[in-house]
Amino acid sequence: RILWPKYFRNSWAEVRQVSWPTRRETWKLTFAVIAFALVFGLAAYGIDFVLDKIIERIVFRG
Fold first, then answer.
1. Digits of tens for pLDDT over the chain (62 positions)?
2. b/e string for 11-31 if b means 16 or more Cβ within 10 A?
3. Three-point CA angle 19, 40, 52, nearest 5°
4. How far is 23 from 28, CA to CA, in rounded Å?
5. Which of 3, 21, 37, 49 could form a disulfide with 25 if both were Cys (CB 3.0 to 4.6 A apart)?
6. Whether the Cβ atoms of residue 21 and residue 29 lie closer than 8 Å to each other
């Protein structure tokens, strides 16, 4: 049996102990994630484009 008030009290105590990032750190990490996603997306697009052309030449022989 779970004692809900105790559970929420303990959970809130844990949340208060978390070391939250600063606003600046949050923006830096957000930018890093977006930049990585863009680079990865462009790389995936490039690989897909090249493989498409290779397969197209093999299938249509021309």
1. 668 888 999 999 999 999 999 999 999 999 999 999 999 999 999 999 999 999 999 998 86
2. eeeeeeeeeeeeeeeeeeeee
3. 160
4. 9
5. 21
6. yes
Distance CA 55, CA 22 (A): 49
Which residue is associated with the tokens 């923006």?
27
Q: Is the pTM of this model over 0.85?
A: no
Read out DSSP for 17-47?
A: HS-PPPHHHHHHHHHHHHHHHHHHHHHHHHH
List the domain boundaries for the chain. 21-62
Sign of CA dihedral 49, 53, 54, 59: positive
Tokens standing for residue 35: 């930049």
